[in-house]
Structure formats: structure tokens, C-alpha cells
Amino acid sequence: MAFVRRTIPNVILLLLLSFLATMTERAICRLIVPTSPSYFLRTTKAVKLSTGNMELVEEEQCSDRILRLTCRSLKAFIFVLEAEYQSNRTSICGYESQRLIAKKKKFKLGVKNSRVKDTRQLRGNYIKDDEEEERYLFDVRASFNRKCSGQHHCRYNLSSDHPGTTYWHPAALRLKYACVPEVAVCKYCNVEVRIPKGNEGGYLKSPGYPLYYPGGYSCGWTFKSSPGERIILTFHDLNIRSPEADGSCIDVVRVREKGNTLFERCGIAAGIKIISNSSLVTLDLIASTKLYPARGFLLQYQVLGCPNISAPNGSYISYDTVTSRTFSCKSGAVFPDTRKENRILECKNGKWNETVDKLPTCVGKKRKI
Question: So which residues are the signal peptide here (predicted)?
């Protein structure tokens, strides 16, 4: 009897532990087992450049899968444009989003990995890729650049290639990259870059990218567009020597316009845009050593605006923006074809919506046409 009394509690304890283990396993399974198959989206299109065709690729798939970035041409390299982890979109992985989002506090999504960057060290007239903080979007371009930009093909795993993602739950990973032909990229120092018209513009990489960047001598570029146009420089990947403990920079990338500094930076950045106020800017890479083991930079240059146009006789420019220009006739005069005092020209894709050399001269209101 004593043996039975000792055995029964042990049996009950084992049954209880077995029951708890089963319930825990079921709870975990309900959390991580997909409710529907995951899917994968990929679109490609060809973009015509002045020196050839560029392949533009957009992909979207679950973040727990390996991404394979490839270029069809062996003479093209990968240029990462956008990369986002979207923590609120779990359906692409086939998971129950409600259960995952309810446990989001357990996932250590640090502020340092988010789209919003610390800009205290940035100086100059620059704009960020996105001014508004988006709660569920996390910019992972830095790790994509480190692993893939400048390569012909690449395998990327978010959990192992991006720091701090160990506890991130499976969700949508959106990627946009270009396969840029080598011949379409400016890669030599101390040259003048004439910016072609068109939405894509052109591309430039520092010598040695993505293995190293040079120093010990002057390395700069001058960007020119037509009069009246403005220039956009977008650093899709910037990776040079980090700042010192006191915040000072030994190596630096600097953009200047008419003697004024628009942008100056060292360290790592991605997606920063600089917009000029004129049709000429200079870019300098100032480095202290002959070779430094960092990627350097990869940027895109584009034209913003249309060629300069003077006011027709008898009128003046009353309002002027990047996308439009308003001409107003002097007092008592109108444009003869519209009989109105004002005329607005719209700038689209680098062209005015009217033929510039055929703008009519203002005439008196009482004058018959």
C-alpha cells in the first residue's frame, strides 16, 4: 500500500507535465504554422540609358527566406535602391498576423534599425528619402549594400546579414534594385559629368567600389546641366571611414555649390538626396590614406526642372518653381492668343508644355488680333 501511495502522485505529476507540454506545443504551432501558403512577387522592366539598357527589379517575399539577387548580364552590377522590412504585413508569409502583431513587444525592433535616422551629424542642404516616420517600416538598405551592392549576384538572409534581427518575426521584405551596365557608370576621378535629360539620369561610383576607395590625391567631379535646371544627387550607398570619438571626420564626402557646402559627411549612410539651386555642383572625396578598406560610394545623378526660358517681350516672371513658371504681362497688356494677363508653363519630364520659341509677345488689351 505504501508503494502504491508513493507511485500514484508520481503518475499524476507525469500526466500533468505531459498535458502541459502538449498544450504548449499546440500554442506554439498555432503561432508559427502558416495558415496559407506564402508567396513571392517579382517584376522586372528594362530602362533605357544613354549608354545601354538597365534592368530594374522589384521583389517582395517573406523575410525568413533567402533572397537571390542576380543580373542577367555579366557586365552589369547590382545597385540597391530600396529595401524595407514591413513588420505589419505577415500574410505574405502565410502567418496569422493578429497573433504575431499582438506579441510585437517581444520582438526587439530597435530604433537604430528603423527608417528614421539620427541626422545630428549631417550638415548642408539635404533631404532624406522619407520625412515621415512610418511605424512598421524598417530600412535595411545598409546590410543589403554591405552584402550585395557592386556585385554581379548575391544571396541575402535577413536574420544573419542584418544586425539585431534575431527576434524579428517573419513578415514582408520589399526590395528594389537595378542591374546597371558597367559602361553606363562613371568611375574615374576629376572629370566633368554632363547630366542627360530623362528620369533615370546617370550613375557614378568611387574608384575601387565596393572593395576600397583611394586617397592621398585629389578626387572630384563637376556636375553640369542646362541653364535653369537643378541637379539631384542621391547617395544610394555611402560607406567611408567612420567619424572619430569627438565627431570629427578624417575622410569626408563634400558637395559644394558656388562656394557653399550643401552636404558633408563621413561614415555610413543610404538614400540621402542633395538638391542644388543651380545647374552646377562639385563633389569631392577627401581621403587621408592611399587605400582605405571601405566601399566608398555609389550615387545617382538626375536633372530637376526644364531649360531656362526668358520672359516674352512685354512680360516678366511673376512666379517660378521647379515644376512651373508664370509669366505676367505688364499693366494694360495681355497675351494675344488667350486674352489673359498671365501664362503658366508646366515642366514635365524635362520639357515645357509649350514651344519656348513660339511664346507670343504681350499686346494692349484694346488691340485687335
Answer: 1-29
Report the distance separating Cα 242 and Cα 265, nearest Å: 10
312 close to 359: Cβ distance less than 8 angstroms? yes
DSSP string, 152-165: SEEEE-HHHHSTT-
How far is the CA of 185 from the CAs of 50, 117, 291, in angstroms?
11, 28, 21
Number of H helices, E strands in the chain: 4, 28
Pairwise CA distance, residues 295 & 288, whole Å: 15
Yes or no: say if 84 and 78 are a contact pair by the CB < 8 Å rule: no
> Any residues with CB less than 8 A from the CB of 145 and at least 6 apart, and which?
80, 236, 237, 239, 270, 295, 298
Residue entry with cell 526587439: 108
Tell me which amino acid residue 46 is.
Answer: A
pLDDT in tens, 14-70: 666 665 555 544 443 333 344 445 566 888 888 877 667 889 999 999 998 999 999
d(CA 296, CA 209) in angstroms, rounded, equals 6
Name the CA dihedral angle for 349, 354, 359, 365, rounded to a multiple of 10 degrees.
-120
Instruction: Give the integer Cα–Cα distance in Å for 333 and 341.
Output: 7
Residue 212 is inside which H or E element, if any?
none
Asked whether the beta carbons of 63 and 170 are under 8 A apart, the reply is yes
Q: Which helix (H) or strand (E) holds 305?
A: none
CB 255 within 8 A of CB 274: yes
Q: What is the DSSP pairing of strand 185-186 with strand 202-205?
A: parallel
Torsion angle of C-alpha atoms 42, 46, 50, 52, degrees rounded to 10: 100
- The 10s digit of each residue's pLDDT in 134-178 is 568 899 998 999 999 999 899 999 999 998 888 898 999 999 999
